[in-house]
Amino acid sequence: MTEEGYTADEASIEASEKYISKFLRDWIENTEIQKVHIIAHSMANRGLLRVMQRIFDQVQTKTKVSFGQLILAAPDVDAFRIVNDEDGTGTLEILCPNEVVRQRLSKKKRKITNNINTCWSHIRWFSLCIQQDNELDCQKFTRNGDLVTS
Fold first, then answer.
1. Could you tell me if 63 and 88 lie in one domain?
2. pLDDT (tens digit per residue) in 97-115
3. Which pTM was predicted?
């Protein structure tokens, strides 16, 4: 795919978000379903994640519907990144789609630290981050899982 085509796809999925949001809200609020599982592929993952950030709390407050599995097939999103410090150490930043997921992951700090210890010897910290108002809000933890900043 060319860069122009990729940019056009990004614009297309952004323009589709309001329709995806409306479809999901209408479908959930006007049916008797109890749990929703969603599969998205490639670039659609970006739009779906942004839509879920916006409607998640609204849907769960207005209805008794819960979201089950959200499957991101061939995701075109960054779920984590490693930020390297000047001293050669680094921070693993894990991007969470919302506060609920961040809280769930914070309860699994031991599993995260075990994976870090197994895979990345230079990682000194890890952060659980959510995007809010175009800024990254991160809770930073030591390799032992102790909270450093929030």
1. no
2. 778 888 888 888 888 888 8
3. 0.52
